[in-house]
Amino acid sequence: SGLTYYPGTGLPEAFDDAFLLVDFRGGASNSGIHSLKNKPKGASFELVEEKEVVANILPTDVEFGYTGGFYFTSWVAGWEPLKQGRIYHVFDPTVAKGPLVAETRKLMAEGMGGRKAEELVRLLAHPDIRVRQAAQFELADKAEVAALVPAAQRNESRLARLHAIWGLGQIGRR
């Protein structure tokens, strides 16, 4: 009932390039949250790894937070709503206290408005997709074509080049 992609910061490297899937089956004994990894297969993908991350609970949704780790909601019991629920936070304390999590949290709390184009272009290569997207959207909102074109053509980071291209596409659609 829930699916999200690891944004790149806040958990150990084992979660890199992974999806978290909530498998709600109506009972805690056969429900849980799974980590899924895919690899390209032609024009599609194939599942190459599935690991149970949380078991014996009735989760309904999952999302990554800015404090490290992920949050998930639990229905508590069965199919019938009991007008109650729970929210859990799963995290690795060592990773959550790391400088990259702190930087991501700070950048997202401050927002991208008011930042110069040069800084926003640098953020297109940030390890966290949420930061990259926020920088991309800010550059697109400001119609920073002069900053995005060189980033799309020559940035060392493949991710930065992609976000620059997508930002140019946003501007072009307007």
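^ that was protein a. below is b, sequence first then the tokens
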Amino acid sequence: DVSQTLELSADAALTHFDGDLAITERLSVLKQVGLGYLKLGQSLNTLSGGEAQRLKLASAVTELKPSSLVVLDEPTTGLHAQDIEPLIALFHQLVQYGATVIVVEHDMRLAASADYVIDMGPDAGALGGQIVAEGTPESVALSRASRTAPFLAAELAEQPKEHGVKDSHALTQDVADVDAIQITGAAEHNLRRLSVRIPREKLVTLTGPSGSGKSSLAFDVLFAEGQRRFLETLSPYARQFLPQLPRPDVEKVTG
């Protein structure tokens, strides 16, 4: 009955509903993001922050359209090392589908698997807010200015990249030649009039010390500007019921 079904974990439900494509397609995404152990009827207020974020990701994946922009804050939080691999595979599936995936992340396994890495620093707070290195994981690992580089180099040496198809030559070139999101003059929080081009339809990882400005760039500038512009597309009638969002402290965001 319904109560017994709600007691099933997502993994158990995959077996129970084997053959029902509409159900198994959605449940398989839960398994991919490492949430196969959750019960179908589990209350949302019992989830950890990492579980809640990955549940949102699983929900969004089933509704994504080509050219979608996905921005995530440390999606590996709370994951065991063995669960990171399926998550990385999912991100590359999204990229192959035509999405741009931008991840704020400290986990070097994910950074090493990215198509493009933007490393921020050199330190936190007032000593951060700058880009110290950017490019393929292999090129950032060679940077002498990056505090992330030694850890990224160690990960690359231990686990050669096996995910997705990466055009290293194209991404090592000036990103100006690549279809990209251009952020110019970002100054939210500790960002120092930062300008950067983020290649589209790639897996892009923002790395750097805690407090270096990664989330400020990803969420307080890029996501905030996208949200503000979306609200502007609504009718005046609809907008009167919604809060007016301030423009982030940035000169220009295009692409």
